[in-house]
Amino acid sequence: MSAAPRHTCVHGILGAVICLCLLPAGLAHAFSTVVIDAGHGGKDPGCHWNGLVEKDLCLDVARRLNSILQGKGVKTVMTRTDDTYVELSDRAGIANRHEDAIFVSIHFNASRDHSVSGFEVHHRSKKGLALAQCIEKCMGEAVKGRKRDGDWQDYKVLRETQATAVLVECGFISHKGEAARCADPDHRQALAQGIANGILAAKSKQ
Ligand SMILES: [Zn+2]
């Protein structure tokens, strides 16, 4: 499809990799706020495998993403900042209160097939697809591990959010090797950095 983003990558000053996504006209995001949604929380632990609990990992990556984006001068809102349960509709409601926002939900994955691994970004709209592809591309450059192709998903939190919304599955904690990576703070920082790079790469010049 001609609407698919074209990607390129350049090496910036000091050897830092800058991730670029060249989005077609109309698919760049002129957002002012990033709503960061740490999945699950409180009474809802999400999946738990190999000594890891999804809700804790989601909050950790969300906090790291929040710090990176704030450091870049981007306004952020977190749907939860501690181990509390927030209804899915309330999470979407938080996003819907902010004009010019994008919504990024952070999750980890699990499968009965323990050989499945990798990160992926899901979407539910055309603009969501463009943002998801940017984030996947930039995560692929920042993160060790397999990149999977996210797809269209009718998740409630994406359906009820009016803003451009994506859901990042950071990796399968049911996979022993990936769980070991996810237990490492350096890996979680790389996940957050990859997501941040994708968000910033998708941001249009305002
Ligand atoms: Zn989840």
What does this structure look like?
By secondary structure, the chain is α/β, with parallel strands linked by helices. It has six helices and nine strands; from the N terminus they run E-E-E-E-E-H-E-H-E-E-H-H-E-H-H. The chain has helices at about 55-70, 90-95, 125-140, 155-160, 175-180, 185-200; strands at about 5-10, 15-20, 35-40, 50, 50-55, 75-80, 100-110, 120-125, 165-170. The strands form three sheets. Strands 6-3-7-9-8 form a five-stranded mixed beta sheet, with helices on both faces. A two-stranded antiparallel ribbon has the order 1-2. A hairpin with a 5-residue loop joins strand 1 and strand 2. The protein is globular.
Summarize the structure.
The protein has 206 residues and is α/β, with parallel strands linked by helices. Zinc ion binds next to loops.
Small molecules bound: zinc ion
Distance between the termini: 27 Å
Count all strands and give the number.
Answer: 9
CATH hierarchy class name: Alpha Beta
Instruction: Give the spatial strand order of the biggest sheet.
Output: 6-3-7-9-8
β-strand amount: 15-25%
Per CATH, the superfamily is: Zn-dependent exopeptidases
The biggest sheet, with number of strands, parallel, antiparallel or mixed sense and barrel status, is: 5 strands, mixed
Total tally of structural domains: 1
| CATH-derived topology | Aminopeptidase
Question: Which regions have little confidence, pLDDT < 50, spanning 5+ residues?
Answer: 1-16
Helix and strand succession?
A: EEEEEHEHEEHHEHH
